[in-house]
From TrEMBL:
It holds the Pfam family Response_reg. Residues 1-112 form the Response regulatory domain. InterPro entries: Bact_response_regulator, CheY-like_superfamily, Sig_transdc_resp-reg_receiver. It comes from Mucilaginibacter calamicampi. This is PleD family two-component system response regulator.
Length: 113
């Protein structure tokens, strides 16, 4: 599942991941958090800057909730010090924008293994 409030980024990520053979669900805001808790995805790719809540907050919530704590969460952002942000919210990994498609696919594959 991908959550990003930028439509262009969301479409790019959806296209790339579908071409790589992944089934992709998308969301644009924090209301999609409820869907995650009802039907947990295999992996969550979440932008750190969303309207209403940060990816950091979403990640921390998921990682500290027993039903969702095992979902691999990757933060994606142009946020300075993204590594520190990812570590503080217990994210499994992070992808700094701008990113290379090969790096994105490698990190997703690695975190799904």
């Amino acid at each position: 599942m991908i959550i990003d409030d930028e439509a262009e980024i969301l479409e790019l990520l959806r296209h790339v991941l579908q071409e790589a053979g992944y089934e992709v669900m998308t969301g644009r805001d924090v209301t999609d958090l409820y869907e995650i808790e009802k039907d947990p995805p295999d992996l969550l790719l979440v932008d750190n800057w969303l309207e209403g809540k940060t990816g950091h907050d979403i990640c921390y919530h998921l990682k500290t909730t027993p039903k969702t704590s095992d979902i691999p969460v990757l933060l994606i952002s142009a946020t300075p010090n993204l590594a520190r942000t990812a570590e503080s919210c217990l994210a499994d990994d992070f992808i700094a924008k701008p990113f290379e498609i090969t790096e994105l696919l490698e990190k997703i594959k690695s975190n799904l293994s």
